[in-house]
């Protein structure tokens, strides 16, 4: 429903005549009539807030976005289904009559590839729908190809942990990552893959950093120049996880050292790679340097790095999810540097390329709310915050 018709509908429900409504707004009856007929548009956030206050509704309802809480409810219900799938196991080796056969290893690989692609394109609501079935299928995987099914189980837990960490479900993300580590036991490559998501789920601590470093150095080749891109990508990604843990703990010296180690490996891998779904390369290291600068409170360095990164060829090679996550980090840097307009601009860019990264990820929603509350924030970001129910009119 156009906003003008919505205003008219709500006004009638409040039993207000156009004249009475206009008087309470301090407008003319003609102005109200033009708004309700769609002849005059409502662009100023302050006017929308005034209308919402007179009609005794929130701005999200007035804008026609009152369904957003229902979307969040759907997300929570989807997370509950993932939790149920994580707790279910196929214990009996037999198959009850009438049940369809398990997926073949080849089909599982296809489904897992689709799940990773969905994640990297930041289509989180769709992935929430996919994962319960995928987890059920890997639990039912046939034993004819045990190594392939084992790798599929690790990958299913990895993608589950990655999504849950994005959605702020840290405890459940840790459970999925821990399951991945358990399933990978005995296979050095699979353990390193699982450790990447374990690092995303663990809170920053010296113990967690030690776990990441142990996994990184186990995955590292004896000679960097002789290492494969797959080995270097895994080791480098784990070093980045350890570096961010050090940054969050305030250990700037360790952070710098670990980032430099990762940069050496990234230079050998190059940009445009996605070995083991890490998207590791020189540009990824620069994203981590930017995030570390934000953690250290060096917003000037963070902004400078961001402005350089988006001009790199490697920037365009990154998955959509990675670019949008960085733009949210950049918005935080701009805001702390006293540039709310620039913060709003990069947030809107993130919302354009990956809406779920901004609208479903708690870090994205929190950043939108912080920027929108700045007195100098542009109306575009304020309206987005109102749409998401992050501001009261």
Search tags:
3 domains, Serine Threonine Protein Phosphatase 5, Tetratricopeptide repeat, 22 helices, mainly alpha, globular, 393 residues, 434 Repressor (Amino-terminal Domain)
Report on the architecture of this protein.
It holds the Pfam family HTH_31. This is XRE family transcriptional regulator. It comes from Micromonospora maris. The chain is 72% helix and 0% strand. By secondary structure, the protein is an all-alpha fold. Helix 11 (188-201) runs parallel beside helix 13, helix 15 packs antiparallel against helix 16 (299-309) and helix 21 packs across helix 22. The chain is globular. It starts with a helix and ends in a 6-residue tail after the last helix.
In short:
The chain contains 22 helices and no strands. With 393 residues, the chain is mainly alpha-helical.
List the uncertain runs.
none
CATH H-level superfamily title of the largest domain: Tetratricopeptide repeat domain
Output the helix-strand order: HHHHHHHHHHHHHHHHHHHHHH
- Tally of separate helices: 22
Provide the CATH top-level class of the largest domain.
Answer: Mainly Alpha
Radius of gyration: 25 Å
The name of the CATH architecture of the largest domain is Alpha Horseshoe
Please estimate the helix content. Answer: over 70%
Strands, total number: 0
Question: Please, how many domains?
Answer: 3
Assign the CATH topology of the largest domain: Serine Threonine Protein Phosphatase 5, Tetratricopeptide repeat
Mean pLDDT: 89
Query: What structural class is derived from the secondary structure elements?
Result: mainly alpha
Q: What is the first-to-last residue Cα distance?
A: 20 Å
| Biggest beta sheet attributes | none
Q: Rough shape?
A: globular
Give the amount of beta strand, in percent: under 5%
